[in-house]
Amino acid sequence: MIRILDGYLGNEPGLTSLYLIESHRPVLIDASTAVSAERVAMQIRETGIGPDDLAAIALTHIHADHAGGAGALAKAFPKATIYVHPKGARHLVDPTRLEASVRALYVDAYDELMGALTPIDAGRVQAVSDGERIDLGEGEFLEVLETPGHAKHHLTFIGSEGSAYTGDAVGIGIGDVSIQPATPPSDFDLDLALASIAKIREADPTQLMFAHFGRKLDVDETFDLAEASLVDWVEVVRAAKAQGLSVEEAVVQLDANAPRAAAPAASVMGTRTNVYGVWQYLDQSNEMGK
Ligand SMILES: [Zn+2]
Question: Phi first, then psi: what are they for 99, rounded to 5°?
């Protein structure tokens, strides 16, 4: 059984979804923020999974709205192994640099939105990469796909029953709002993001389990929308840049013209975060003469 838990990003329901697979070795996919960890632990305990029962926490990537709560949850569920991209592992063991970089991005909003990160013992952190399997017992497993683009430490998990746990790799789709791209600094890369969407499509999943928010059953349409919105969004930011706007002016203009899903403005869903990521990507592409 796959259960959708709520990560209460910014204390709001319906923005961040975590998945609890109640397999022989129960696994939680993603961990939400540090400030939400207790609310997440409570939802897990309510299913009857006790402190020693959770076998694994699998992180799609180490952004603070996905992995910020991993340290606190590792404490609450002391038998769980934490699975993460090889580039993310050391940042879970020593989250000092990760927390500093996220603080720099969210500034004054950080403490209320994200919360202080708790280190995890190195022996409990297991790096996994492309093609590896996380054993869930009784023949069930999660297959690991490396899906960079949104972040270079991004993984997608394909369940043996066919679901794809896509983190932010296919974008954001909240409520009735169409699929929006998630293009934060500092890793966003359009070509990698499109290649990752194609790679997940290739795995032929039966349903897409978004981190923001919930499952998408119209799989092909969702992939199409994700690709189109990503290309469009990069063009919109490129055009603003070509007009000679500063990045802050571009944020104000684009926010006024194309408001994004209702969500904490400083969060991954905010226009500012998504303009900054594309801006940086375009600067780097120019430097490389692309
Ligand atoms: Zn992210």
Answer: -60, -40
Query: Measured in angstroms, how far is the CA atom of residue 138 from the centroid of ligand 1?
Result: 31
Ligand 1 is an ion; its neighbours by CB within 5 Å are 63, 168
Sign of CA dihedral 45, 46, 49, 55: negative
**Pairwise CA distance, residues 110 & 105, whole Å:** 8
Report the C-alpha gap between 119 and 278 in whole angstroms: 30
CA distances from 204 to 66, 135, 160, 280 (A): 24, 20, 12, 32
Identify the CA nearest to 161 among candidates 21, 20, 48.
21
**One-letter identity of residue 23:** S
Environment class of 219 (CB within 10 Å of its CB; exposed 0-12, middle 13-18, buried 19+): middle
Digit-coded pLDDT (tens) for 41-93: 999 999 999 999 999 999 999 999 999 999 999 999 999 999 999 999 999 99
Which band of pLDDT confidence, cut at 50, 70 and 90, is reported for residue 219?
very high
What does R_g of the chain's alpha carbons equal in angstroms? 18
Domains annotated on the chain, with CATH: 2-230 (3.60.15.10)
Residue 200 CA to ligand 1 center (angstroms) comes to 17
